[in-house]
Specification:
The protein is an alpha/beta fold and about 260 residues long. The chain has 9 helices and 8 strands.
Amino acid sequence: MFLVDSHCHLDFPDFAAELDDVIARSRDAGVQMMLTICTHLSKFEQVRAVAEAYPEVYCTVGIHPHEAANEPEVDAETLMRLAEHPKVVGFGETGLDFYYEHSPRAEQERSFRAHIAAARTARLPIIIHTRNADDDTLRILDDEMGKGAFPGLIHCFSSSHQVAERAVEHGMYISFSGIATFKKAEDIRESARTLPLDRLLVETDAPYLAPIPHRGKRNEPAFTRHTAACLARELGLSEQAFAEATSRNFFTLFKKVPSPF
């Protein structure tokens, strides 16, 4: 089994006391690669240090929309410079979150567009967070794609199917988290069934959103396997076939990560 956890937060305090064990459990579960995601530019060195410490871990650089007004204003040039490190393979997470609105919408959009500019120029993927902001996310994606294509994905997908379809039309990928295993998430599973297999990824968003049968507990990369098993059943595939397909998709998108395939 070869699975990739395409989105986790291994620098978070939740893992500090047992990170070696967390990585070991991931290997034992068949999760052979992990992408740990930056949320605060001010904490980027901690994120990068985790990636440097483990051969199967890579990382991104960026600012979560929650932090857009709290972190120093960032530009594409700064992001691209930090992404020159061999372990840094993408930008974000960035995007729009109008559910909590911890940062003003204008600040979120400004930061989002700066990350897009970096992705377009560096040709590295952008990891997009969108919550309660479907219309504005699509507006920005349509506008920015008109300026020139850029690679990326919608992470922890929980939006309308229209968002997924439009993102795929733009050449992007859709990543599914443990939410897909929840009983009331039939609409998300329906999106997974109807999207092209070659555009699907899986993730944990650990330490958040643990899938069934671990719902309510701290999530970790090893639990990617439960989400993958659920989606494999939905698509009528073996776990092995689904794992291989989504792993190949990861390496197709994140071209900077050496592929074993």
